[in-house]
Predict the structure.
Amino acid sequence: MKALQLSFATLGLLFIAAISNTGNAQSNLSSWTALTDFHKVMSQTFHPSEEGNLEPIKTRIGEVVEKAEALKNSAIPADFNNKKVKKAVKKLAADSKKLQSSINGGATDAQITASLSSLHDVFHQIVGLCSANEEHGEGEHKEHDHNHEEHSH
């Protein structure tokens, strides 16, 4: 589980680094408000689940679905607007609805935890795709040397 948490932390750092990357003329993740909004609710529901607390996801799943749907319907910044990102965003919205149905249908805590973890993976797939586009667009690889604990994720 430690390795899994480390990989989530690393991907979270990509998101933080990408949204703080405002020095270029290209779009950056902070310009995609719907993604930032989804990240906030994902962070506030996923991290408690890592500690065994599923109350936040159980009580806020409607908000997760709402933010995922808003993300799906939002204008994707031009630099990130490609088939892979579109597909991942659609999957995020669909999987959010599946998780909501599962929770409403009385899923076990283990099922909820697994589904939420998968949803979190899809979110990080989107961030990774967008971060790769940013790095490629600038013609150089960026090193991300941040402490995950300093940022809310």
About this structure: The chain has one domain: 32-142. Residues 6-11, 16-26, 136-153 have pLDDT under 50 and may be disordered. The chain has five helices and no strands.
